[in-house]
Amino acid sequence: MSVDTASPAGSTPAGAADPDLETYLGDPHDPANPVGYPAVLAADERGELLAEGERALDGYGLNAEFVPRALGGRFDRADRLARVLRAVFRRDTTLGVGYGVTTFIAATPVWTDGTPTQRRWLAELLLRHGKASAGYNELAHGTDFGRTELRARPAGDRFLVTGRREMVGNLSRADAVTLFARTDDRPGSRSHSHLLLDMAALPAGHRRHLHRYRTAGVRGILLGGLEFTDCPVPADALVGEAGGAMETVLRAFQVTRSVLPGMAVGIVDTQLRTVLRFALDRRLYGLPVAELPHARATLVGAFLDLLVGDCLSTVAARALHVLPDQTSVYSAAVKYLVPKLFQEAAHSLSVVLGARSYLRDGRYAIFQKTLRDLLAATLTHASAAVCQATIIPQLPRLARQGWRSSPSAPPALFRLDDPLPPLDFTALGLSAKGMDSLAGSLRDHLDEPGADPAVDRLGRLFAAELDRLGRLCVDLPPADRTVIAGRRSFELTDRYATVLAAAACLGMWRHGPADPFLRDPRWLLAALSRLAGRLGIDPGPAPDGLADHLYTELLERHQDNRGFDLVNRRLAG
Question: By CB distance 3.0 to 4.6 Å, which of 71, 124, 485, 529 could disulfide with 539?
Fold first, then answer.
């Protein structure tokens, strides 16, 4: 693989301190801004990825965010990557997925298991604004990679690739493709391998681009396919050892599953901001809509869902660094629960906006785009059922061991400004081996002297729920401990993920940012009560003035143009 190592003109040097992306993208409401909402909506109507947006992200050097620092990029912390990309998703989900996520997913198997030469080649390609794509799914088999029919047959000093990949983002314009292929006809987990393809080096006569698929959300994504016919690929394209792709996937996808929900926080931020603006502008019965009890409760509820989702996704991303042997469970839980929370919040907000939630132009038109985009973006890469199926086989061992005797979660899991050790992809465990420090941290809060009585009471509800889950999971029959388990096991994963979210919120309140709002227990009480309601548990009466406190914080952040997430930073515009 040969590369041109010349630095791209006009971009930020990869190793330099990156400029603020939020400020760099400018005011989203400015009609003259080439990456503002008017331009984003116009590109969506055309079914195109915003060209000016891609040029802007090239100028920023966004691809460097996906390249490890050791290879000349800026990727050193998973939680930081999620926050950087949040600025793009706050602006245009299509741009976030089409420019960033596809490349990130394609690169992680190479960082996980690639040779030094492969890593350097891909790093240099990305730092020159090259594009990468990941070919995993086949329409006939969905996310069941074990049944893939695309084959790479060893033939001397090369592989001959035959088969199809459909519905893959950016495939038609990718410079590099990480391809998941069957390299052995025998059944089992050692029959698949990754190949890193240099698309410019593949003979045109052995590959054919398939038609583009149109989508309701993220309309500008170039979703298409590729058909190979005895396409020769050099033997050094093999990533890792032959037959090792399943293990690589189990590690690499922990990173992507942990980080993507944190990016999606930006989508819900835009939705909440748009609906709050409408609720303040629109008057009914002589009052702003925001003063009506149902509307206000909906706005506050969405704010809480955003905070809960940010807590869980941030903790999962930081766990990749400090608890890498446990993140096979956390990454699946966050990728399952956070999209669900965000989709429910978006639906509730659409009710407040009413008929305007369908309008494709005007002051609030960005909402209908984000509503369509959110579902597509949160389905990207792994569905809810796949994530639950990752957790189910681990439940009995977690119940016997992890929820009773795991060591306490380190405070660094929650302290956003604490340094983190480098992300070691090879240290990510294929399973948690029965360990769960995050759920186990519920005990720490209960044993803390001088604990807030209201927090203590709610914390004990979740500790009791974890004990109940332990009894149920230990007794799961063998058939319900597999990926073909029945409904009961899937319901248990939902409850378990909700308990993890509660533990993440408790840890963030106890150890997290010094922001006065986050140090105050009132947001925590509201978040825990909301999570308890998801479990069908009565949280008891809310303290007086709790909803008003949350609404006041929401309104102040809106007026100061600050984010609604944990970071609470000023935004562009």
Answer: 529
